[in-house]
Structure formats: structure tokens, C-alpha cells
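Per reviewer request, we include the raw input and output of the structure prediction for the construct analysed in the revised manuscript.
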Amino acid sequence: MPTYSPQPSFSRAPDPDGILLVDKPSGMTSHDVVNAVRKMFKIEKAGHGGTLDPSATGLLVLLLGKATKLSERVMGGDKVYEGVMRLGSSTTTQDAEGERVSGSDPSGVTEEALRAAIATLTGDIYQTPPMVSALKKDGVPLYKLARKGEVVERQPRLVHIYRFQVVEFGIPDSRIEIKCTKGTYVRTLCHDVGEKLGCGGHLASLRRTQSGKFTVDKAIRFEDLKTLPRADLARHVLPMLAAME
């Protein structure tokens, strides 16, 4: 009786365990990116190591498979941002997404005055989280309460601003760079600068360039991820040890 060798079985590569650095585009929430990656590559477990606002771009640290257990460690890292601060108007959200609520002509603000105001917001400072934020009150995100017109008391939180500098001065827009601890709201910093100068201010645009030891120049653009074959995903995934070093 002839014998037959079993046919080799082909199966997809196992889900990766590690860290995927993504350059997030504007218009997507952090959860949108996580869900899209999960569906595109059919990955069972995925999360992220620190939220970016939908309008912000830049580094989003995705945690795949067993690396989701490293969430707290990755979230705890210091952050670096670059952005544009716009003087002359304060908004309901402290960024360009909100409605203008106050402000005045900022043309009289000098570079020296701007730098002096910024200097008061460096080092250890207490910051009150904005109502339009993902911070939760009794399990409900503040932005959901804000949509209903509710305003709740928020306790000031201690954060540390290592660096807050003007990269390029302009009126009404100045380019800024900030290095800070986790939980810092850059839009609140811009709002507070505007208050100190008496003309109002808000965050016009924001890009995260670093989170902990990870930098955006090592990230893959989300648009490139959309056309990446699953077999090639592994070469973009950093080992879990990368978060421990």
C-alpha cells in the first residue's frame, strides 16, 4: 500500500509582541490608530503608550501582544513637542478646535515679553487640566461632560517643564518647543501664556517628536502602514526590551 506524506500546512505568522512607532496624522484619535492597526494586521491585542489629541500629529507608541503590559512604563516617559502658539485669542478648548471666547490685538507683544512670560511656566508648576480632555470624573471623560455644557472642578496637578522655548518668534504665531513630564497639557501652557500677556492665546498646532527614549524619526507613517504587507510588519516592531532599557 502506498504511503503519503502529509501536506505542509501554511499559517500566518503569529501576532508580534513588541513596540510599533507610528507617525500619527491629524484627524485621527489615538484609539482610531490602534483599532486600524488591529484590523489591518489582524492582531488580537494592541494598545498605546500615551494619547495624542486628534488634531495633533507625531509619535504614537503602539504596544502589540504581550507588550500591552508595558503601558504604564511607556506612558511614564518624558515627552517632547513642537508646535505653534497663537496669540490674540483664547478658545473654549485652548486649541484651534474650539470657539473664540476672548482676546485682543497682540501686535504690541515683543519677543522679550513673550520669553519672559514663558520663563514663568518652566520648572515645577501646577496646571489645571482643561475641561475638554480625556481626564475622567467619576469614570466619565471630561470632554463628554463639556459637550453637555457642564463644568466640574479640576484639581491642579504638579508637572515639570524641562524646556519651553521660542524657536521662531512671530505675531500672532510663534513656533515653540517643549520638553515636559507626562500629563502636561501643552495647550494649557499656551493659554496661560496668553493670559499672562493680557491678549489671550491658544495652541494652533502640535506635533510630538519624542516619548521617553522613542523618537518620531524612527516611526512609520500611518499612510505607509496602510499598504504594508502583514509579513513585513515584524521588521518595524521593536522588541519589548526596548522599553526596559
